[in-house]
Write a structure and sequence with these properties.
Blueprint lengths: L2 E4 L6 H13 L4 E4 L10 H11 L2 E2 L3 H7 L9 H13 L2 H8 L4 E4 L4 E4 L15 H8 L6 E4 L6 E5 L5 E4 L2 E3 L5 E5 L13 E6 L3 E7 L3 H11 L3 H9 L2
Parallel strand pairs: 1-2, 2-3, 5-6, 6-10
Antiparallel strand pairs: 1-11, 4-5, 7-8, 7-10, 9-12, 11-12
Helix pairs in contact: 3-4, 7-8
Length: about 240
Amino acid sequence: MRSAILSDVHANLEALEAVLQDADARKIENILFLGDAVGYGPDPNECVEILMKRCKVFLAGNHDWGVLGQTDITYFNEHARTAIGWTKGVLTKKNLKNLKSFLLQKEMEKEDMLLVHSTPKEPEEWHYLLTLWDAEINFHYFSKKYCFIGHTHYPFIIERLPSGELVTYKEKASKGEMERYIMNVGSVGQPRDGDPRASYAIVDDEKLEIVRVPYDVTAVQKKMRKAGLDSLLIERLAAGR
């Protein structure tokens, strides 16, 4: 079965809808979500409700926990903290309850995969996996063949060979029998790798693949301005930063 794996929607409804339309066109029904439904964007309620409806697994990210008061947001930058405060003011009681039901991580036995928002090592601490050294450490914190993450908003695939050598891929990797993998699926609603298109992953029996999907960035920016959200958050969408 093919799976679509999404992360970091950040209340960007247009990006989420574009990704789901792309997955539907590919006839992918197994949709998994790795966290950060809210934060930054203008449509938190709509995004939470769609994710609850469409996804078979939904995890919590640090922004989700920040809205719930379940993690310390003092380390968030000023713009992120402001967005968290705005989100708290508009989320319905129903969607706050929905967010509380999101898991921190999920092991899928049949698929031989671990799903987690940040890292296998201390997932509740929201570490960033940015380097090969980070990857090497984290390979020792899960036993599955595959680990799928988000959080950094930078998509990549890291393959660990039986020899221990690490190989990186930007867009696609063929599955090996003895190899193991950490894959960052990128961000649906807040890409930061210089490409403003929404990012998600498709996984099938043969390969792991990063897919990019264009969406109406201008429409989201217009909503953000109307909501009074931070101008930096608005402008960065068009640059993918």
